[in-house]
Design goal:
268 residues; mainly alpha; two-stranded antiparallel ribbon; two-stranded antiparallel sheet
Length: 268
């Protein structure tokens, strides 16, 4: 693939970074459009989006550091600034950190909680899907060996240097699997958003869908340096965080359902 979009001497522009920046802008655009129908001020959305970006980046890198330390890597190496700056971190760390930032920012700006969450997370699904094209180009988040007709083979030495991607070996294109699943999730979330039974349903459903799909996708992930716990190959960091997201989604579903039920008698 093409880890670098442009390379002139020592000046390089990574394809991964460009696509992830584009995916963030797409996510914010979807959030902005949906939030207008929720009656949320545009300036509030932009302020919350900026907070989510910062807290998401911090969350992604913090989870990466935690997993690295758990693997027995020395603290000095795990906190090496060059490594932290180079790596994007773990996506679920970004989701968790970004959600914390979003909740705090929504509270500070007095934005409607359910409407803010519902308008935000369809864009997150889109952004994650598009962002995986960046992973595909860079060779990171690679899959296990595959002999299926659609298996992909990475050949760029930079992919191996940057992400440890196996070269010359047919692999499951898990990045594209994730892209496809997130596009399906986006369609589901938008359909539910139009026919919500209660405010907050879309956000709750996002966390459940994301946790389930990640647990399934982990079956074909080959980059085990992301953390394997208790010596069990199937107990990966992605499955643990996926379970956390599912449980949080169930909590949100119950919380917003009870809130909607409590409001209805007052409207009668």
């Amino acid at each position: 693939m093409h880890p670098y979009l442009l390379s002139i001497g020592t000046f390089k522009i990574g394809t991964y970074g460009v696509i992830y920046a584009a995916s963030y802008l797409l996510a914010v655009e979807v959030w902005y459009r949906l939030s207008r129908r929720e009656g949320i001020a545009p300036e509030s959305v932009l302020a919350m989006a900026f907070t989510c970006m910062l807290s998401g980046v911090l969350g992604a890198k913090l989870l990466m550091v935690i997993v690295t330390l758990a693997d027995g890597v020395p603290v000095a190496e795990a906190l090496d600034p060059s490594v932290l700056l180079h790596s994007a971190g773990f996506f679920h760390g970004a989701v968790i950190g970004g959600t914390i930032g979003l909740l705090g920012s929504a509270w500070r700006l007095k934005a409607p909680l359910a409407g803010t969450l519902d308008s935000c997370f369809p864009g997150v699904a889109l952004g994650q899907g598009v962002g995986k094209l960046g992973c595909f180009c860079a060779g990171c988040c690679y899959g296990t060996v595959s002999h299926l007709p659609w298996a992909v083979t990475f050949t760029d030495p930079q992919a191996h240097l940057l992400s440890g991607t196996p070269l010359g070996v047919p692999l499951h294109p898990v990045q594209l699997y994730t892209l496809a699943i997130n596009m399906v999730s986006l369609g589901i979330l938008l359909a539910v958003w139009r026919r919500r039974r209660f405010p907050g349903q879309v956000a709750a459903l996002y966390f459940i869908l994301e946790g389930v799909q990640r647990s399934i996708i982990e079956t074909w992930r080959g980059d085990l340096d992301r953390g394997v716990w208790l010596g069990l190959p199937w107990l990966s960091t992605g499955r643990i965080t996926g379970l956390v997201l599912v449980l949080f989604g169930i909590f949100l579903w119950a919380f917003f359902t009870r809130k909607a039920v409590a409001v209805r008698p007052a409207l009668c």
